[in-house]
From TrEMBL:
It catalyses: 1-octadecanoyl-2-(5Z,8Z,11Z,14Z)-eicosatetraenoyl-sn-glycero-3-phosphoethanolamine + L-serine = 1-octadecanoyl-2-(5Z,8Z,11Z,14Z)-eicosatetraenoyl-sn-glycero-3-phosphoserine + ethanolamine; 1-hexadecanoyl-2-(9Z-octadecenoyl)-sn-glycero-3-phosphoethanolamine + L-serine = 1-hexadecanoyl-2-(9Z-octadecenoyl)-sn-glycero-3-phospho-L-serine + ethanolamine; 1-(1Z-octadecenyl)-2-(5Z,8Z,11Z,14Z- eicosatetraenoyl)-sn-glycero-3-phosphoethanolamine + L-serine = 1-(1Z-octadecenyl)-2-(5Z,8Z,11Z,14Z-eicosatetraenoyl)-sn-glycero-3-phospho-L-serine + ethanolamine; a 1,2-diacyl-sn-glycero-3-phosphoethanolamine + L-serine = a 1,2-diacyl-sn-glycero-3-phospho-L-serine + ethanolamine. This is Phosphatidylserine synthase. GO terms for molecular function: L-serine-phosphatidylethanolamine phosphatidyltransferase activity. Pathway: Phospholipid metabolism; phosphatidylserine biosynthesis; Lipid metabolism. Pfam families: PSS. Keywords: Endoplasmic reticulum, Lipid biosynthesis, Lipid metabolism, Membrane, Phospholipid biosynthesis, Phospholipid metabolism, Transferase, Transmembrane, Transmembrane helix. Catalyzes a base-exchange reaction in which the polar head group of phosphatidylethanolamine (PE) is replaced by L-serine. Its EC number is 2.7.8.29. GO terms for cellular component: endoplasmic reticulum membrane. The keyword Transmembrane helix applies.
Amino acid sequence: MGKPKDRGDAKGHNVEVHDHTEVRANEYDKTDDRPFSINCEWDIKQTQQFSDDGTNTYFWRAHTVTVLIVMLCVLVYVGAFEQPHSDREYNTKRGLIACILVFLLFGVTQTRDGPFKRPHPAFWRLILCLSVVYELSLIFLLFQTVDNARLLLKYLDEDLGTPLPEQSYGEDCRLYTPGHPKGAFHNFLEKCDVFLPSHFFGWWAKALILRDYWLITVISVLFEVLEYSLEHQLPNFSECWWDHWIMDVLVCNGLGAYCGMKTVEYLGNKPYHWRGLWNIPSYSGKLKRMAEQFTPYSWTSYNWKATKSLRRWLAVCGIAAMFLIAELNLFYLKFILWIPPPHFLMQARLALYLGIGAVALNETFRYMDDPTCKRFGQQAWVVSAIVATEVLICVKFGWETLSLPLPLHVAAFWSLFFGIWFVWTVWNFWPSIIGGFRTRREADDKTSDVNSSSERSKQE
């Protein structure tokens, strides 16, 4: 991508932007004394007019006609020249893949751009279309029975469709067991598996998405509390106390979140200079510029301001709840549909969630913070639908598991938790709540007065 060479002023004239334009964060303030200053990428249209300097024009065109011609040529070959196959299962799979590919081609060339321009707008349009395909697949599963759903997954991989062995990590919580044939620290070493680096990199990525240290910490702690609360439903939620709070919260989640926030801090302070690829004289500079195509175009600042108003407070609590529900859905889906954790379906879901989550959070913040934004973002809309559909699948297929009653002490804890949350919310936002009631009542009174006046006019 080239530098923004020219932009239009308020009257539509072109204003020159020099080759070494420095793109800084919108409303970036170095005096921000908040811990782990929250800097994030904002909608490019709000910060820097996006344009091409002429060096990479070909790569930034949609190529709608070219894509259409290539697609039709492939379909003509299949329809007119290819020998038909008699294998029904092969034809079904091939036809479904072709339908998905045609939809993805349409989406990549025709849907509107998202908030991010790197590495290419088409990449984020592809992410959006993949999320729609995933949502359609979930809806299809929702209309099946649990046995049919497991059988459909078996068509993707013959190893699926068999019950998973129950695994509990909290049977023996001793850190030191001298004389044990597997070693004195075998309990600790057995829990240092592939989930350790996945936890670390997962929370590093979540820090880049949320970009708020305190919100990340709250989600991390609450998820461990949820594991305590639901271990009577899912056996693998049962872990030792040091596995919950030391290995997960402090080491993996905490260190990953800290590194992620330091990355956010670095990207927020970094100046961004963009030049056209062919304006760079050296080959090493060209290669560096190509590598930088996979870095942010700009890194701008916003603040969630969770306690600014009741609306923002409820929105931020809703974001935290969506994160927690999406995490729980992963464990319930693999338990109900018999999908082992290392399977590529689980890995693909996690990778997709990272992409769609980054865009959805950006769109959600703009919807909350920008008064000119009147429409809920397209990716945020799809993510909300995905999380809700996953919950419905878990409820429909795993009701016997989900309906297991909470232990008394767990139910008491969550009742106290939500009670304190409700009381604090009412106490902190009471003036705005009363003001909202008064405003609505005054509006109703004005409406009734207008209706009464119109009725009297008609009678006269």
